[in-house]
Here is the input.
Amino acid sequence: MTSPIDIEGGGAPLVVDGEPGPETRAEAVKLTGRSPGQLMWLRFKRDRTGVVCALVVIGYFLVALLAPLLVKLPGTDPYTLYGQDPTYADKPVLDEFGLPLGYLGGVSGDHWFGVEPQYGRDLYAMLLYGMRTSLYMALGITVLIMVTGVVIGLIGGYFGGRTDYWIGRGTDFFLSFPQQLFFIAFMPVVTSFFVDPREETPTYFRALAMLIVLWLLGWMGMARLVRSTVLSLREREFVEAAKVSGASPWRIVRKEILPNVVTPILVQFTYQLPSTILSIAFLSFAGVGFVEPTPDWGRLFAAGARYAEQDPAFMFFPGVALVIFVLCFNLLGDSVRDAFDPKSGR
Here is the structure.
């Protein structure tokens, strides 16, 4: 009796008593001629956790993109001081001690997530604009990190020899810098060179400084991952056949090697993006990232730490939003990895 063989980690057995089952025959016909990408998509769609997490992540980016429209629903914005502006004196949101009126930090029909103590800024608007700032900046930084790491890893892994040696030493040099501590020390130095000490550092300058430092000190892990993968691929038969046929190194890398490193690149991307968001939040929390009045996830946590004793509810909505996003993105990374390699599936 022939043992059953599982198709793609699940489903009906391929062989039953020496004969293929009817359901499996139909499935085998459907899978015939499918590209690896199509097979990956079929496996991913069967993973309910991955699909739900993908929808949640897409929803976050849509909410961040549509933040200017969504804050119009309650009619608020992230910059108005509703607790101090005399225009809103007929609708007080703070008591005489500067604490939010009402339950859960001042939640009401006008202020869906409550207000900020002392100032009365709307937390719903601050959170949506903070997500917009953090998500899209982290996306840009992550793309730069991925592209830089892939290019350097491909060059070092394919050409080897002295090229790989010097690239490896350069990678080790950049790894010697503690990223976040270096940035904390780097920001005042750059500011003193380009910004008058009597002036406030512009928001665009802070964003550019964070982008450059997080990019320059973040590509090494991706480069090492791609290099190790390319080292195992460059001696394979299909690469040797391409060399014998007279293909140029650029064509071999682009046509033969790069398609085979897509899987680790995508999986690493799903882990790198939430890590970058947390790095940006840490920098703002430490006071060297975005500052008042720019809305940012990290700045909300910094403010929440100041208000923890007076208004512990202020941290609730930003904290829940960040935990859900990071958790879903990490689970999405696991699902993408399993879809590309069903043998590693849970």
